Structure to design on (174 residues):
């Protein structure tokens, strides 16, 4: 089994610097090296070409750049770690899209409930008016033209009773 010293090292800088990530990579590394403050990149969009001649892919990467300090406190290196977060980003985007759809459906449901309540409130007085109209027609057919009884039904006392009972603000009967 090989030790870390026996494993051949590969120079990744040419691969990284040839991608669109290269300039950002070098800039952030330089900043970390100068300031000693760590850099954390979340879901950074990069275009990578995995093999020569292959198509360029849009990927999302998470990075951490941390300064390595020597015993005397001077920065003598940078620890760089990163991983491909493309699948995680796609799932987060899908969850966000589903949440937007859910919010839209909730608003539609609330509007439907409001429309049903409004229809109910409008139907109640109309039903009462229709019933009283039918009663007036029935009374007229049965007893003929009885204007005195109709005047009683239109009296202020009778009308106010109907208004309070059915919530009708203005009514004309027979």
């Amino acid at each position: 089994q090989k030790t870390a010293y026996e494993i051949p090292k590969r120079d990744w800088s040419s691969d990284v610097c040839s991608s669109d990530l290269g300039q950002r990579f070098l800039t952030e590394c330089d900043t970390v090296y100068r300031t000693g403050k760590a850099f954390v990149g979340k879901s950074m969009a990069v275009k990578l070409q995995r093999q020569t001649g292959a198509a360029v892919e849009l990927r999302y990467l998470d990075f951490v750049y941390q300064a390595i300090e020597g015993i005397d406190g001077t920065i003598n290196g940078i620890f760089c770690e990163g991983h491909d977060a493309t699948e995680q980003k796609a799932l987060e985007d899908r969850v966000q899209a589903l949440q937007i759809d859910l919010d839209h459906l909730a608003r539609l449901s609330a509007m439907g409930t409001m429309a049903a309540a409004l229809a109910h409130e409008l139907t109640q007085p109309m039903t009462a008016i229709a019933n009283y109209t039918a009663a007036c027609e029935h009374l007229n057919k049965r007893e003929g033209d009885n204007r005195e009884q109709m005047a009683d039904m239109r009296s202020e006392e009778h009308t106010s009773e109907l208004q309070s009972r059915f919530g009708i603000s203005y009514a004309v009967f027979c």
Summary: The chain has a mean pLDDT of 76. The chain is about 55% helix and 20% strand. Helices lie at 13-18, 21-35, 86-143, 147-153, 156-166.
